[in-house]
Amino acid sequence: MTSSTHKHQPHQLPNMYGATAAPPPTPSAQPNIPLSTSDAADALSILLHRLPSPTLTLPTRRSPPATCAPTLSLNNSTTAPTLLHDLLSASSQLGFFQLTDHSLPSQLARSAESDSLALFDLPKDKKESSFPKNWPFGYEANDDDDDEEQHGESFRLDSTCSTESTELPPALDSLREFTLAMEKLGVRIVELLCSAVGFENPLKEDPTRFCSLMWITEGVPGNKPVLSGGFYPYIVGLQYQIRCQKYSLLADSGWVSVSPEVDSVMVTLGDIAHVWSNGKLKKVRGRPVAHLGDTNNTRCISMTLLVTLPTDSTISPLLPKLVGSNEDEIEKDEEQSDGSSGEREERLFNSFSFEDYAWRVYHERILFKDPLDRYRI
């Protein structure tokens, strides 16, 4: 009978650890000590802290940070170098500012608002038949009741506020005069921007090189900003501040909130100005959207004048021209005394069709992805 204390001789493994070294412990030889809940949490926390942290950018549209818009004056006491310096500072850091001493009569702005309110009071069939349908001009309404973000109604008019009907209740004389005055001011701002950045003004002495779009929307009372339609590319956008009102802007830094002074003109720089300046000027994506208080039922019209380009235009950076009439002379001017070639400004954007770009940004309603990214070099 075999004894219960009999031990089998184990198989001997080669000694790979030296004469006196013990073999590494096996799992069965480890003490079975369960981790407490707090120990497990600490271990998980250490592991997560060692992992590379992802960068998440979340939209902050509901509560955009408040920003004070820089104030620029066009009065005669402001010297040209000072004005250009202040303009470049505001445009290169923020992409928007408020303009005072602009010579636009406040009464004209209020009369234009009255004309615009009368347009929204028209029957819908009259609205649709009285305005041209040559995109981007015309009338548009959001008929989708399931759309979470109401876009309201909008009128997009040319600089003469032309219509297809002569029987509209308002003659639109004030709105037309206001639009032309805003256009004149916008063209001057473009001229000042070109001088401040240092490139030739492509609109100079050629009125066919640009066009204007007066975009009129009626706000709906409530705290939530109301968008109307999509975006449309522009050089500069102008909004007359008729009353104390807050706006949300989608700038390069994200959503910001501004409250311009009453009777000032809020100026925003658009994507065309950004490309023209080769990225030196910041931009505002789309038009500012108004916050309307819900304390009363006062109707409010937003009238935005966009100085933009004809649809057959091509957009590309306008780099500062060097002295010389041809490439050979330019290269010669760049040659330095030590024999090295001077550095020319590097182009940051490829040229692209304005019409294709305008159609895409208007219909895709791009908010958080910069539509200019695809054209960056």
From TrEMBL:
<feature type="compositionally biased region" description="Low complexity">
    <location>
        <begin position="54"/>
        <end position="65"/>
    </location>
</feature>
<feature type="compositionally biased region" description="Acidic residues">
    <location>
        <begin position="326"/>
        <end position="337"/>
    </location>
</feature>
<feature type="domain" description="Non-haem dioxygenase N-terminal">
    <location>
        <begin position="72"/>
        <end position="155"/>
    </location>
</feature>
<feature type="region of interest" description="Disordered">
    <location>
        <begin position="127"/>
        <end position="167"/>
    </location>
</feature>
<feature type="region of interest" description="Disordered">
    <location>
        <begin position="326"/>
        <end position="345"/>
    </location>
</feature>
<dbReference type="Pfam" id="PF14226">
    <property type="entry name" value="DIOX_N"/>
</dbReference>
<dbReference type="InterPro" id="IPR027443">
    <property type="entry name" value="IPNS-like_sf"/>
</dbReference>
<feature type="compositionally biased region" description="Basic residues">
    <location>
        <begin position="1"/>
        <end position="10"/>
    </location>
</feature>
<feature type="compositionally biased region" description="Polar residues">
    <location>
        <begin position="157"/>
        <end position="166"/>
    </location>
</feature>
<feature type="region of interest" description="Disordered">
    <location>
        <begin position="1"/>
        <end position="36"/>
    </location>
</feature>
<keyword id="KW-0479">Metal-binding</keyword>
<feature type="compositionally biased region" description="Acidic residues">
    <location>
        <begin position="141"/>
        <end position="150"/>
    </location>
</feature>
<protein>
    <recommendedName>
        <fullName>Non-haem dioxygenase N-terminal domain-containing protein</fullName>
    </recommendedName>
</protein>
<keyword id="KW-0408">Iron</keyword>
<feature type="region of interest" description="Disordered">
    <location>
        <begin position="54"/>
        <end position="73"/>
    </location>
</feature>
<dbReference type="InterPro" id="IPR026992">
    <property type="entry name" value="DIOX_N"/>
</dbReference>
<dbReference type="GO" id="GO:0046872">
    <property type="term" value="F:metal ion binding"/>
</dbReference>
